[in-house]
Write a structure and sequence with these properties.
CATH architecture of the largest domain: Alpha-Beta Complex
Distance between the termini: 83 Å
CATH class of the largest domain: Alpha Beta
CATH topology of the largest domain: Conserved hypothetical protein from pyrococcus furiosus pfu- 392566-001, ParB domain
Largest sheet: 5 strands, mixed
Shape: elongated
Number of strands: 7
Order of helices and strands: EEHEEHEHEHHHEHHHH
Strand content: 5-15%
Helix content: 25-40%
Length: 239
């Protein structure tokens, strides 16, 4: 665990005292070419590593893994580092800011602009499963859907917005997650089914209705032979 006294400090640390648990996905050419440039110049990594303390004079890279790989390739003795705490939140934030991890937003609460930006990002990815999806249509239908209580992405399939089950739906999980929001108390009460009181109607009110409306009421009351009845007969049966 990092000592509070060094968190946030910029330190010049021996490369041998630093471990990296993850490999960078940067092409080897960029690492080697950058390492050559670093050696030809002043040999200092002016963009520091982000590390956490794992023991006495021992550190682990949590972000800027590319710089670590370049420094190692260049054979640097020491590298500049910023010391971070060892929390998961810090690790996630630093990886996102270093573009080593794609950030995600909660689709249950995302704004329309956030949905548009996320879908556009996915559509523009090389070989994207969503490349045939119409951005405006998909964004509008997802935005207008009652998504606050979604626990799965499956309801999107029913929106008929071009996103179908399979690769297209799975692609959304690259930029979205779902954390349902608690329903307001008023909404919950409204959602509880309440028995509807039967409307009382007299003969005068029946006379103002159409035959179709009278037949509908008669069917609800279970009156037989409704289809052949005329208006007067329907009124008589209902009165």
């Amino acid at each position: 665990m990092s000592s509070l006294s060094i968190i946030g400090n910029l330190m010049d640390i021996y490369l041998d005292d630093i471990n990296s648990s993850g490999e960078t996905d940067t092409p080897e050419f960029l690492i080697k070419a950058s390492a050559r440039l670093l050696k030809e110049k002043d040999g200092r990594n002016w963009i520091p590593l982000l590390v956490k303390e794992t023991g006495e004079d021992k550190y682990e890279v949590i972000a800027n893994s590319f710089i670590y790989a370049v420094a190692k390739e260049a054979g640097l003795d020491r590298v500049w580092c910023i010391i971070a705490d060892d929390s998961d939140d810090t690790a996630e934030t630093t990886k996102v800011l270093a573009k080593e991890k794609t950030p995600k937003i909660n689709l249950c609460t995302a704004s329309r602009d956030e949905i548009v930006a996320a879908l556009q990002y996915l559509i523009e990815q090389p070989g994207s499963a969503l490349k045939t999806v119409k951005l405006a249509v998909a964004a509008n239908r997802i935005d207008e859907a009652p998504r606050q209580s979604w626990q799965k992405f499956d309801p999107i399939i029913k929106l008929k917005c071009g996103i179908t089950k399979g690769a297209k739906l799975e692609a959304l999980k690259q930029v979205f997650y779902l954390t349902p929001q608690p329903m307001p108390e008023e909404t919950m009460k409204a959602d509880i089914a309440q028995p509807k009181p039967e409307k009382t109607r007299d003969k005068a009110s029946f006379k103002t209705m159409t035959v179709a409306e009278l037949k509908e009421i008669a069917k609800e009351k279970g009156i037989a032979g409704v289809s052949k009845m005329k208006k007067d007969e329907l009124i008589a049966a209902l009165s």
